[in-house]
Amino acid sequence: MIRPHHFQPNAETAQDNGFQTAPSDVASKDLVKRGYDEVTSMVEALRQEGIEVNLFEDPRDDRPDAVFPNNWFSTHPGGHVAVYPMYSQNRRIERRQDVLEMLKTRFRVQDIIDYSGLEQDELFLEGTGAMVLDHVERVAYAARSKRTSEVLLERFCTHFNYEPMVFDAYDGDGLPIYHTNVLMCIGTEVALIGLDTILDPARRDVVHERLARGGRDVIALTQKQIAEFAGNAIELQGKDGRILAMSSRALAALEPEQRWRIEASLKILPLDIPTLEMAGGSVRCTIAGIHLSPRPEGATA
Q: Which residues lie in Polar residues bias regions (predicted)?
């Protein structure tokens, strides 16, 4: 996770991110403090659940979306790391060598596959924002957008052994949804997805069937719930079992029956991040998961 010292919603990404909101009534200095404090509180809550958090500071004032590191890198079992090409110019400077060095120092990293050079060819794939990965069934779900190149998705799936599942998804205003992870979340036994965002009924059925094939309980979210970030959640492993981390706003949007179905296999951990959500992302976006094996204590290579 990244704690921002100069949080601001990113004006450069607002054109295609319909989930962003303008903080017209909040002073810049208040936004900065709130963003910093919300990440601090998130980290404390996650650690209380026994979730290890590697926290990095971002003191720079030219990386407004740095709080969302899951877009520029991902990690994978077997010691693999991917680095991604970003659509917006000012997001490309979020990539940090110190984060990659930490991964290599603390975990067994066999290789780093760097796709970022493909920005020159205008090919973009913004990590686990553009893709929602089913680690069990090995499927990479991806909604088409400016931030998701199908060519690069195919290349990623070949490198990392995933089946690509591409579809078109639209928000309540009929605009393409910019990132797949705002409309769906895949856990071990449950999946949340805004099926209504997929307007093609045949494709909607294919996606639903593929999600359910492994025996998961597939919970359909409404457009209104997607707008409240109910799909932007992430399953994590805590000291007492699996946890679904989501924002307080997202949890409030769920129906009692939906919550009951989630809690049949997961503990829900609500996190209060209204300021960060102004940037158009929520809890899942702030967490870059680590799927690497830790090095033994004292090991250096």
A: 10-23
